[in-house]
From TrEMBL:
It comes from the Bacteria. The chain crosses the membrane at residues 6-22, 59-79, 85-103, 143-162, 174-194, 218-237, 249-273, 331-352. This is DUF5808 domain-containing protein. Keywords: Membrane, Transmembrane, Transmembrane helix.
């Protein structure tokens, strides 16, 4: 787990650095998102400012590589403590990266205003290319392709055995529902990108059309390819289910690899678009610079005269941001922040409960209640067909369906290749283990105190005997 999170952290930091932290050069009349004449961009004052910015950026990202790696060491203790510290680090990193970028953007903008610099000669505050705008909806592949991939995901439901597996298995619905949601998300994103207004780069309308068509075509192919691999991953999983409804580790590994391909398509598409765009702009004989810095001065877009809700971000051409001058823009941003904050807090609280709320068993006249930090589980005494003390778990390959599993505890629903579906409320490494056999599969539970587990066994045995006598 520690190695996995360390790798994830390096990937996240690498993506942030590639998108927001790399050395920014003067391009399209802009430096760090601020329109400047080339003479100002090459002045000693601005050169020194950018050198400080690049140095501070490298220090910030290097320090966060060290911190994130150190934080992952907490995984060897309690996972919930690690998640809390990791969430704090992630917030620090994301906020710090944006403050570093936006703060220096604002400083350069203020410098521009103080010095009286204007954008490159002929700059305009806005521009419209009617020819390019008229072709906005005629570029890229159709977003309707994603419905075909949704149909492919639903196609296995025609098989009676697959339908039975989906209805009877606790995890049978996870893969198809996930596949459908992913494909529909790609489809919505695809449709939104195709509807985006074309950007104006030049007084040459044909060049504007060519660049915008290239970008929308690349996005279309990347999203269609992503949706295709998502559907293929699900079909592969379905073909790998054995007669007992079991998926081998190899099948799951290949599934994860196939589901990671959308990330490859997106990143590859971004770098291809950037390279291709630079080559196309090299033959731009009549560049057109849009000096709209006043609307971006704080780092985000705020233009009350623009009817658009979503606009292309200055910091990353493949990212879109909301128009904060519109009430809907503020609401979207607020809801996004609240959603992320609630998810982080909720996740940390639930993991804390899993680690530190003790496992307990309460036996009453007609039911047995098992309590834990993950969830409580109630068993009717009528459903209990046997109880037994085990020195260890049955030798099987168990896979978690939902719940929590770490070096300290195993909580929730599991599935064994031979045992089938079962529930576990266990402290790892502690014996004995109480096995409660029910019509819905066995339940395994224990305590850190072996005598407590034996006491649960005596109480349950007495209650089961009474039920049998009655």
């Amino acid at each position: 787990m520690s190695a996995m999170f360390a790798l994830i952290d390096l990937v996240v930091i690498g993506i942030f650095y590639a998108v927001y932290g790399t050395k920014r050069t003067y391009s399209e009349g802009m430096l760090l998102g601020v329109h400047l004449p080339q003479s100002a961009a090459e002045s000693g004052e601005v050169t020194a400012f950018m050198a400080r910015y690049h140095r501070n950026t490298k220090i910030f990202y290097a320090v966060n590589v060290v911190i994130s790696t150190a934080v992952c060491g907490v995984c060897f203790w309690y996972f919930s403590v690690f998640m809390i510290i990791w969430s704090v680090w992630l917030l620090e990193f994301c906020i710090g990266a944006m403050v570093l970028l936006y703060g220096n953007h604002r400083k350069l903008y203020d410098m521009k205003v103080e010095r009286g610099w204007i954008g490159s000669s002929g700059s305009r505050i806005m521009a419209v290319d009617t020819k390019a705008a008229a072709r906005s909806g005629r570029m890229g592949l159709s977003a309707w392709w994603h419905l075909l991939f949704c149909a492919l995901i639903l196609m296995p439901c025609l098989d009676a055995d697959i339908r039975k597996y989906m209805m009877t298995s606790e995890d049978g619905w996870i893969f198809p529902v996930t596949g459908l949601l992913v494909s529909l998300t790609f489809g919505i994103l695809h449709a939104a990108i195709l509807r985006m207004r074309n950007k104006v780069y030049s007084e040459d309308s044909d060049l504007n059309v060519e660049i915008n068509r290239m970008q929308k075509n690349v996005w279309s192919w990347a999203l269609v390819g992503s949706s295709l691999f998502n559907a293929a991953a699900y079909l592969f999983v379905v073909s790998g289910i054995d007669a007992n409804g079991w998926l081998s580790t190899g099948v799951l590994v290949i599934y994860c690899i196939m589901e990671s391909m959308p990330g490859v398509f997106m990143i590859g598409g971004f770098f291809y678009m950037r390279s291709r765009k630079e080559k196309l702009l090299q033959k731009n004989a009549h560049p057109l610079y849009i000096d709209d810095d006043v609307y971006w001065k704080n780092g985000w877009y705020s233009n009350p005269n623009d009817k658009r809700l979503m606009v292309q971000d200055w910091a990353c051409s493949w990212n879109y941001t909301t128009n904060m001058a519109k009430p809907a823009g503020k609401i979207c941003m607020f809801l996004a922040i609240v959603f992320v904050a609630v998810c982080l807090v909720w996740g940390c609280v639930e993991m804390w409960k899993i680690d530190f709320v003790p496992i307990g068993v309460n036996v009453s006249e007609d039911q047995v209640e098992i309590t834990s930090g993950y969830s409580d589980y109630v068993i009717d005494c009528d459903d209990i067909t046997g109880v037994e003390l085990l020195e260890k778990l049955p030798d099987d390959d168990y896979r978690k369906i939902n719940g929590g599993e770490d070096p300290h505890k195993m909580l929730g629903r599991f599935k064994g290749e031979n045992t089938g579906k079962c529930r576990m409320y266990l402290y790892v490494g502690y014996t004995p283990i109480l096995e409660i056999t029910t019509g819905d599969g066995p339940v395994y539970v224990n305590s850190e105190d072996g005598e407590k587990t034996e006491e649960w066994m005596r109480e349950l045995s007495a209650e089961v005997d009474n039920e049998v006598k009655e």
